[in-house]
Amino acid sequence: MKSTQNNKILQLTESTLIVGIDVGKETHYARAYNFRGIELAKTLRFSNTASGFESLDRWMDEIMQKHRLTDATVGFEPTGHYWFTLGDHLKRKGHRLGIVNPYHVKCTRELDDNSPTKNDRKDPHTIAMLVKDGRYRETYIPEAVYQDLREAVSEHERLKEQQSALSNQIQRWLDIRFPEFSEVFKAWTGKAALMVLKTCPTPEKIVSLGVDGVLQVWRKAMQKPSRTKAERLIAVARGSIGRVDGAKAAVVGLNHLLAQHQMSSQQSEEQETLLQELLLQVPNAAKLLKIKGVGMLTAAIIVSEIGDIHRFNDPKQILKMAGLALKENSSGKHKGKTTISKRGRRLLRKGLFQCMISILASNPEFRAMHQRNLLREKNPLTKLQSVIALCGKLVKVIYAILVKGVEYSPEKMMNDMTRSMKAA
Length: 424
Prior knowledge:
The chain is an alpha/beta fold. It is built from 16 helices and eight strands. The protein has three domains: 137 residues, ATPase, nucleotide binding domain (Nucleotidyltransferase, domain 5), CATH 3.30.420; 129 residues, Helix Hairpins (Orthogonal Bundle); 139 residues, no CATH class. It is 57% helix and 10% strand. α11 runs antiparallel to α13 and α13 packs across α14.
């Protein structure tokens, strides 16, 4: 993250081999060029296996020896997850790695032959030429605790998505079989509601149990079950419009959904414990939790996405990576709105936004800055614009804490706001 486009170009010298690789699931294609864009060898087709990687090493070594080259820069598109093992291998070999934006490849593919053709020979050439021009992003592969943290966050997000999907399926079941259920229970995840769903989920079974039967079910896990709620449940069950046919198979399906949801919830709790353990292993990360409103989970997401903070020279680089950098849409006399780019790591942007919403609910310093943004006389911001602007401030605070190891200071935050108001 410390290199500008000029610096990237200057890294490519007469002794540099530039390799463009089109990554596939089972087979990769590579083409080799010098720093002027002259091709140095025939296209290499190699498999996504250990022997395939060895053939790539031999191919690159032969080219470098023949043309007296001393270093190599390898570029590729981040095609799903298929580049991970190849990237690890090339990194171990000491080669510089560059990720080329797939959109850039698509836009520049026609420059050479004025044809929209896409094939395994053309794409490696396009990738290599983008690398030659410095139009790539230096690849960051997290190591040690940062890789563990990123993997743990990814698994936690997967579990949350799974829980959400299962919850929607259970709610769909209720809408079909017992739509009046929500008139008695605010949420199906409550203790009493879950006991009903596990033992007598259909209106017919509830009516057959009666008030005393429902209370007996609740007493297994509740000390003082509500008779009023039980009577209300019986009443709505008697007048339910839910579907009746196919109830036997539907109940089996509901039990499966409930079991999956329970297991997913337990796994999510275990994952959060792991996240906390890993977060505390990152230098100075524990100090982030002293910011009022910053929770363990959001801090873990942000730190995992940033990785090693020392690879950045300025917090603006983190904002750009998050897709929170501003972009302007103007042409001639027309001046469009200034918006965020949304080009970058989606999960980092989501983590910062969610963290800021939580901060604004409990942190007086950030809330004061939010009010100032909304009420200032010159160019007042909307609520959403202010939240985005404060995400930038939060990134600066996080950067200072992680890099310098300083403690969060509410007084300094307020002093900074006072100075900015005087300057304005």
